[in-house]
Amino acid sequence: MVPTLKDVAERAGVSRSAVSRTFTDGASVSAKMRKLVEKAAAELGYSPNVLASSLTTGRTKLIGLVSNNFHNPIFLEVFDLFTRALQEKGLRPLLVNLTHETDPANSVRLLRQYSVDGVVVASSTLPPGFGKAFRDAGVPVVHAFGRVTSAPQVHVVGIDNIEAGRLAARSLIARGYRRVGFMGGPEAASSTQDRLKGFTSELATRPEISVSQSFASAYSFDAGRREMQALLDAGHAEAYFCGDDVLSIGALSAIQDRHLSVPGDIGIIGLNDMEIAGWNSVNLTTIRQPISEIVHSSIELMSAMLLDPARLPEARIFACNIVERGTLRPLNAAGTG
Amino acid sequence: MVPTLKDVAERAGVSRSAVSRTFTDGASVSAKMRKLVEKAAAELGYSPNVLASSLTTGRTKLIGLVSNNFHNPIFLEVFDLFTRALQEKGLRPLLVNLTHETDPANSVRLLRQYSVDGVVVASSTLPPGFGKAFRDAGVPVVHAFGRVTSAPQVHVVGIDNIEAGRLAARSLIARGYRRVGFMGGPEAASSTQDRLKGFTSELATRPEISVSQSFASAYSFDAGRREMQALLDAGHAEAYFCGDDVLSIGALSAIQDRHLSVPGDIGIIGLNDMEIAGWNSVNLTTIRQPISEIVHSSIELMSAMLLDPARLPEARIFACNIVERGTLRPLNAAGTG
DNA sequence: ACTTATTTTGCAACCGGTTGCATGAGTGCT
DNA sequence: AGCACTCATGCAACCGGTTGCAAAATAAGT
């Protein structure tokens, strides 16, 4: 059915090696041979089978793109950027959805069956066991949006979540809020923990400000909404740092339901700067995470690892900045603190 | 490095065929042989290389998941459903981003290089040339969210966009709007054309209602917002049917900017019922597209084609229903029209 | 116990490519 | 013209599996 290297060789009247060589760059082929082969190949509509060649070369150019974030719109952008960036480098993303997977061993087996050249983990909530399992299986790993530590076990690209928490805290302090709250995503996620840590440690220097904390069950609109409803029932703070924009927007929704005003009654600051945050019906003040930079840096790191698998794990940390919109009271309203 | 079939055979002291057979179901192996091999395999941590086996079996269990919709949040859900459904069937999605691809031949070559078993096209805006190109290359194709015709060239699963347009029109008629507009996505997309066709043909029976039409440059929030801004400048209708929820939400944003009220000054009805449409800050009346049913039906169709590639192209059409929220005036406000 | 039918196993060829090595063809130099 | 040297080509083995076929082992039948 589909033409093979042998077909091309026969039609061109040359050896199979000759055909193979014209399609692998760096191989030694004369100009006339190349012409001959390319003509035959074009006539037959031949293109080499990457999978077959992978048997001998050991490279499939397949990259496992692993995630469990399929309910946060920011990840559509992440997938878009990743797939495009990979394609530009001649790599193919094999998408793996870990939403209902708890055992790293299964994922490792799966990706080894397809002998992927590398794995990109794109998630802020995946337990670190997954990344380590891939690495232990000898597969180059880059964890994008993962926890950044000083001695990383695998390559990590992301933001300093602790610093992001500090940034949020400073922002609330500067605006004179005296009772503030942290509303995180799933408590077990490292991103949640770090954001909380930065937030509280920055506020620790200001004992006059009271700090509460709570956790939504997931990084989703509904979870944020439910969590804020509970907070409103229990007696709320003046302002909240939500661990993600979708949580913030869910929270805003709950606040609006009670006919409370933002930022009049409650202030909200989110994290991510997803597209929707900028919609004027939302207008969320938030901490921008540099998605595009994180993705491209991850791919760059992955490319480097494909060339040198022994490369030492590295952490790449990007700075965040606050995008001021309308869900915190303005700076000049700051109290004397 | 990673153990191969040969390693297992040697350790178990049996032939390579024996090992191969214990891992392919339906093959003839005795119970004691199976035990022996499985023990050795477990000790070595062996799992068969799907890609190598594909050489002889001709199946890679790889399915190309092709799309160019990476800016509409509804597609995150689509990807989630597709990847999960494929995984459950033991198939792997190879994600292909066609955002900047115009030549079907490139995509065909790409997917043939990886000898995918089939291709799922998930897009409402991809030109039909792509689907046909895959089919002509001998690859089973299912086009999800594609144009449904009575004599499809490839398998298509989706909604009847013409009927959806009619549904929107009837809804506006019933509410007594006298000047209505269609605000579509990209004019060239078949989904846009069909929705418009249904919309206008239904309204053709009501000459007293004036109908205008316009097209946003993309299925995106910004495009919808810009388009509505232009409409507001030029003199707007009483109600609009927007070809997609993201367009609707963009339009709502533009309307809100001008301090006009919805549904007081302008009514909006969308299409898709994306999650955000239900957020109470949006509260969009819209036509629900049964995403999950479409995805699962597509996968079912793909599975059937893998068993019988000669299967005749089939169109599967799902019904849509209106989700009434707050962006159209209530029914009892209908005029005498 | 002996023949026959059935299942299990190993051999070897093959899937679609790649690559080390040896041979053959060119090229430059004296 | 003769020699050494470089470059291009083909042969054959190999990558990690599968599978038709025949031999070996087991089960069944009398």
Q: Oligomeric form of this entry?
A: homodimer
Shape of chain A: elongated
CA gyration radius of chain A, whole angstroms: 25 Å
The end-to-end distance of chain A, rounded to whole angstroms, is: 77 Å
Written overview of the protein:
Two copies of one chain form a homodimer. Chain A is built from twelve helices and twelve strands. Chain A is an alpha/beta fold and 337 residues long. In chain A, the strands form two sheets. In chain A, strands 2-1-3-4-5-11 form a six-stranded parallel β-sheet, with helices on both faces. In chain A, helix 5 runs parallel beside helix 12, helix 6 crosses helix 7 and helix 10 crosses helix 11. The longest helix of chain A is centred in the last third of the chain and has 17 residues. At the A-B interface, helix 4, helix 5, strand 2, helix 6 and helix 11 of A face helix 4, helix 5, strand 2, helix 6 and helix 11 of B. Chain A binds a DNA duplex (30 and 30 nucleotides) through helix 2 and helix 4.
Summarize the structure.
The first copy, chain A, is an alpha/beta fold and 337 residues long. Chain A has helices spanning 5-12, 16-23, 31-44, 50-57, 74-88, 104-113, 128-136, 161-174, 190-203, 221-234, 245-257, 291-307, and strands spanning 62-67, 92-97, 118-122, 141-144, 155-159, 179-184, 210-215, 239-242, 267-272, 286-288, 315-318, 321-323.
